[in-house]
Amino acid sequence: MRGVTTAWSADGPDGRRATGRALLAGLGAEDVTALRPSCGGAHGRVSTASGHASVAHADGVTVVAFSPDRPVGVDLERADARTPGATVRRRTRIEAVRKADGCRPGIAAERIRFTGDGRAVLDGVVYDLEPIPVDGFIATLARARAVPATTAVGPRILPHPRRPR
User: Fold this and answer.
1) In what order do the strands lie in the sheet containing 33-35?
2) What is the architecture of the domain spanning 5-147?
3) Which of 91-95, 102-106, 134-138 shows the lowest mean pLDDT across its residues?
4) DSSP result, 29-98
């Protein structure tokens, strides 16, 4: 995806957070911090002084995404993971969009509409979706578009209301 860089690695000896920070630094992210808005803990949404970033971990592997200009989200699951009510690919797509959206609490998966052409729409924002190749895992990248959802996915055609006779 243009404008977005991604990287992945097995977690190093210092743990998954250190691996994520090192990967992001390698992509050009500066002053990486993580903050959970609900509790203030250093384990929430990733932010950087130089752009937008996202990190995902699964079974000893970390994947990161960095964009200098638009929100991004990334999610990672083992290819053989069991996810109730959804396929692993769909689950990673949902989580990547949620992360790109800002990890707002209470975002139901039903509010995310997949357009069938590699995009998703949530609350009027269009996200481009792209798989990230990671051996043995399914990873998905979501990046917000700069255009309104109605322009990106085409106009809605509403039926003409019937006139009373």
Assistant:
1) 5-10, 61-67, 51-58, 45-48, 33-35
2) Alpha-Beta Complex (3.90)
3) 102-106
4) --S-EEE-TTT--SSSEEEETTEEEEEEEETTEEEEEEESSS-EEEEEEETT---TTS-HHHHHHHHHHH
